[in-house]
Amino acid sequence: MPAIKSIFSERFRIDRCSSAKAFHRLADVALILATCVVAATDPANAQSQTIDLSGQPIGAPPQDFEFWRAGEGDSGHWTVERDGASDSSVSVQRSGGNRDLHSSLAACKTLSAVNARIRVQFKLIDGSMPSAGIAVRVTSPNDYYLVRVSAFEQRLSLLHVVNGMAEEVAGVDADITLDHWQSLEVVVDGNSFKMSLDNRWALTAFDYGKPAGGHFGIWTERDDVTRFNQIEITPLTYVGDDENLRNRAGGESRTE
């Protein structure tokens, strides 16, 4: 079971020399974030999109995805594979035998949003550093947020990838098992990233860059053999006006 933690990004720091002002600022941020959860997430109006693999050709790249590795096309490493005896037991498999290759990303090109709930099942089969992930707010092959699980590190992490360089925002120890189906979910809501593993909350992290819309996808490390299925994306309403959030909460705008 993953350790239970809630971690703010190291990018959000409180000046100890002005603790009184910092307390008021933190209270304002907490008010805005709490209101964002209510105002920006409207499950009643959300339309879930499930990637249906059952009718797709076995051995062919999955439909409605774009495939990238190191900023270049990578469709040859992603295929639809049968995972069991029944016709409905199919999954997306990514495999690659070259350990020098970069990580690989498959982005769903049929949906773009700022906020969303994304859920997948994954199975780590082989690789030098077995890992899998959900990519969110993908604006280019080299720019996105990544919720990553690693059997090698036994860790769940939120990474921000900018110009191909990944920086960890937050992370937590997690139980990741080889050759075993596990579920991974992230709810992206404004600056909040709420992550769950095997239907249990594992980590909530915050990153205070300006939220941007983008695509969503699945990700693997270098030479990994990884399977994904039950890929579900639910877009959520985005409210980007801080003043509107304060008004909804009955609060006031504070200027220091």
Report on the structure:
This protein has two helices and 17 strands. With 256 residues, it is mainly β. The chain has a single domain, classed as Exo-inulinase, domain 1 (Jelly Rolls), CATH 2.60.120. Residues 1-45 and 241-256 have low confidence and may be disordered.
In short:
The protein is mainly β and 256 residues long.
Task: Tell me how many strands there are.
Answer: 17
Distance between the termini: 43 Å
Written as H for each helix and E for each strand, in order along the chain, the element string is: EHEEEEEEEEEEEEEEEEH
| Biggest sheet features | 9 strands, mixed
Characterize the overall form.
globular
What structural class do you assign from the helix and strand content?
Answer: mainly beta
What percentage of amino acids are in beta strands? over 45%
Count of helix runs: 2
Q: Look up the CATH topology.
A: Jelly Rolls
User: Could you estimate the helical fraction of the residues in percent?
Assistant: 10-25%
Q: CATH superfamily, called what?
A: Exo-inulinase, domain 1
Q: What gyration radius follows from the Cα positions, in whole Å?
A: 19 Å
Average pLDDT, all residues: 76
| CATH hierarchy: architecture | Sandwich
Q: How many discrete structural domains?
A: 1
The CATH class assignment is Mainly Beta
Low-pLDDT residue spans: 1-45, 241-256
Helices, strands, pairings?
Blueprint: E1 5-8, H1 19-40, E2 49-50, E3 65-69, E4 72-73, E5 78-82, E6 90-94, E7 104-113, E8 115-126, E9 131-140, E10 143-150, E11 155-162, E12 165-173, E13 182-189, E14 192-197, E15 200-206, E16 214-220, E17 225-236, H2 242-249
Parallel strand pairs: 1-15
Antiparallel strand pairs: 2-17, 3-4, 3-7, 5-6, 6-17, 7-16, 8-13, 8-17, 9-10, 9-16, 10-11, 11-12, 13-14, 14-15
Helix pairs in contact: 1-2
